[in-house]
Amino acid sequence: MRRSLLFLCAHLVLSLLARAQQPQQGLYVVFPFENAGSSPRLDWLGEGLEELTIQYLSDGGEQVYSHAGRAGEFERYGLPATAKLSRATMLRIAQDLDADFVVFGSFNSDGTTLTVNSRVLRVDPPALLPLVKETAPLSSLMELQTGVVWKLVSANERSYPLALKEFAKAQRPLRLDAFEHFVRGLLANEDEARLRELKEAARLETNWPDPAFALGETYASRNDCNSALPWFARVPKAHQRYVEAAFAVGVCRLQLNQPDKAAETYIALEDSLRERTKRDPGAAVVAIPDPPEVLNNLAIALARQGNVQAALADLRRATDMDPDEDDYPFNLGLMSLRTGEFANAAASFREASEREPDNPEDRAFLIQSLEKAGKKTEAEEEREAAAEALGPNALPAVHIETKAEPGANANKADTSKTELVKGDALSHHERLKTDLDIAPLRLEIESSALPSRSPDAAASGPASAAVVEQTPVTRIRRARQELSVGRLDAAEADFGAALASDPSNALAHRGLAEVAHRRGRLDVAVKELQASLASRDSAQVRTMLAKVYLDQKKFDLARTELERVLKLAPNYTEAKVLLDHLQNSKPSSTIH
């Protein structure tokens, strides 16, 4: 019996070792490289090498988070862009991003030569691959980093099909001086310095979309849409930032009060997303979803043109897709007000105020809509509840100006059928989305635009495409896509299938928790989140668990989870905000 147990343990150890050594494909996240030298004037190379690594991985056929995706996670953790991270922190951030591999490294230069050291950290099971070290003249930065990235990938994926020469041919050739101006522009703290550096990069590399996109973003952040639009127009459809550029163009068109052009832009963007639809072998076609922010802004553009019914349909879709956001039901309430449907407006504003109980504008419009619908008693109850929760003078003054509907019978008792709200009176209350959360789309966009990794694929054609194995990773990513468009049954099925293959998969448990939370099955959500944490601790998952506890009115449990989050990630912004809110709120409050 003892010999059998020893044999079983030995077999298990060997299996785990073999699994750790197997080449894998997956999703990369790249961190800034550390300046190990003494020259601060080369600090720009830290993020420069990150940018090059991201570009080279993507052009070489790998899935990789963009710089913006990684920077967004730094922001969530409250980390400065130049923070020096331990490997444990890198691993934790990669886990929260659902990444499979981390690329990190350092560089040193004497002003003439450059030495780059880089490694891959495998996330699950944790494993550190051998160091890759390259030295070359500083002027050969591009060629040097091409070799570093190729060695990293080919060591991680031993069946990687591209030789170094083929890998190098897949990269966009860039002038070193243009690249330096571009990175220095991204790092600049002042707008004028940023614009100057980015314009020089765009001048030196006229067909490079990245400086153009960054220039458009900078001008848009200054509300200078007339300057932003020509730069955004230089971002082609095939570029990974095209979706963000097109979204920003639509925002500018609305800010310039050009709803017809805004609608054209967003409809074209929806068509572009549908064109990127990709087939998942063994499953039905899954389309890249229309982001709720796009649907919201398109609805505003349509409503300004008088097409309220189409606007209502888009806003209902956005409301269903993002169950925590109050802006979408609020805008839905404004649309109902435009048509004099005061009862429907009140229902939408009530949903908005339930999603964000501390937003006084949501409550003010709810009260006014109830009064217009003839529900005076209910309106007064809401006014008293708002005064108790927010304070006696918290509600803003809201006046819903109405006009008689042409041809309506003014003697009818139900005035909600004979009055319309003047559209102009509501326009300045519209909640335009100026930022697009690209995270749910990024992987679908980038993977649909990836070049083939096989040098012979172009000749062999689509008939020779290999069947992709349905692994837990592929099922989870498809499930998250289904979840992002509100197809809960399909998402639940894929998360369940992933767990059937890997019962301890933390991401699958987390996904099932999200499905359960959306369905109001809070006890199930708690169980799945706890199962996820049993497999892998995560600041993000503990924050999700705290939110569920808040919905259950279990404030002490929520506080405990948030305190644990801040031990894991002391600067995690979302957890800090929730904990501060919890400590300053009345026990009956609900936090979203």
Written account of the structure:
The protein is of the alpha/beta class and about 600 residues long. Among the domains are: about 25-175, Rossmann fold, CATH 3.40.50; about 290-425, Serine Threonine Protein Phosphatase 5, Tetratricopeptide repeat, CATH 1.25.40; about 470-585, Serine Threonine Protein Phosphatase 5, Tetratricopeptide repeat. Helix 13 (about 290-305) runs antiparallel to helix 14 (about 310-320). Strand 5 and strand 6 form a beta hairpin. The protein has helices at about 1-20, 45-60, 65-75, 85-95, 140-155, 165-170, 175-185, 190-205, 210-220, 225-230, 240-255, 260-275, 290-305, 310-320, 325-340, 340-355, 360-370, 375-390, 425, 440-450, 455-460, 470-485, 490-500, 505-520, 520-535, 540-550, 555-570, 575-585; strands spanning about 25-30, 35, 65, 100-110, 115-120, 125-130, 130-135, 400-405, 420. Helix content is about 60%, strand content about 5%.
